[in-house]
């Protein structure tokens, strides 16, 4: 699957109401480590069907960042059944992202 | 297989060493614990590296990484835990494998010095940060504090003053060590409050950071409500795993002159983790070239 760009309006539908586990990648254009993480996130999205992978630009979606207390990026948050279950702040290797989503 | 050169660390210094190694037709393995680029990836705009007037740290690191890849160096993402000197060969042990090489270049750089407070680690990303330019944007119109007294702390405070509503600058001494021009600029900002002779002694949090306890050297304690605390109390070299074999100074830097030679033959050091005066991007790449040239000479003579 492809990485889904999520905005304030689509957040509930795409993340909270998702049947699947969701990996949310909070990022921004100016964030170097976010850009390094991006290809890893894309690769994981491509090869997994069990986990939905979404991307949120914190500059465009300040409210979402605030709501989920994102104060540092890259920030990966895992949601299951509408609830946050795991979180990591900072760059991760592909292996560690896989661990985070429990692959 | 025995590599000619193993470089530990894929920052500007280590990657430059790899370029020189590959161009001398040596087989080179670069081992990196996290991601390529090192500390520079957090710099938004580099303005003091020759040729490019402006380049982002990310772009710089990516170009350098691709250059090294295209020259045919192997880059493996594993954390090195030990180096063993077994006669003319060196063993480099990672969390997963053991590699052999004729020479080793240690270019591990440095990491942020922590305050050493109890809940510090768990508050990273929840109000506590070591990088103002990375995380400052999340504190628009909020109250923040910067702790530290060097140039990084001053520049962080200056940057945050334009973003946040209020900035407290906390320093354990009665004056700053940073550049005069930065200090003058800071004093002109109306939303910066200087707190001298004080340390941050406690982090009060409920899920996220809510306030900090600040203790004056005279013993008085005050609690300051802040949304964010930016820690800029210096950096420490990442030489912990090499101390057994390699000589370090009191601060943990590997002892070596401008020739980048360590106390062990065939092992060199390059970049921020070496004892030196100026720690800049240009001196990091310079070290990489010097260390690689020394390694190449060693290989050719043995």
For this entry, give a set of tags:
heterodimer; A: 103 residues; alpha/beta; Glutaredoxin; 5-stranded mixed beta sheet; 5 strands; 28% strand; globular; B: FAD/NAD(P)-binding domain; FAD/NAD(P)-binding domain; 7-stranded mixed beta sheet; 5-stranded parallel beta sheet; 17 strands
In terms of topology, how is this protein built?
The complex is a heterodimer of chains A (103) and B (302).
Chain A: E1 4-5, H1 8-16, E2 21-27, H2 32-47, E3 51-57, H3 62-67, E4 75-80, E5 83-89, H4 94-100
Parallel strand pairs in A: 1-3, 2-3
Antiparallel strand pairs in A: 2-4, 4-5
Chain B: E1 2-8, H1 12-23, E2 28-31, H2 57-70, E3 74-76, E4 80-86, E5 89-94, E6 98-106, E7 110-112, E8 128-129, H3 132-135, E9 143-147, H4 151-161, E10 166-170, H5 180-188, E11 192-195, E12 198-206, E13 208-216, E14 221-225, E15 228-231, E16 235-237, E17 267-269, H6 281-301
Parallel strand pairs in B: 1-2, 1-6, 2-3, 6-17, 8-15, 9-10, 9-15, 10-11
Antiparallel strand pairs in B: 4-5, 5-6, 7-16, 12-13, 13-14
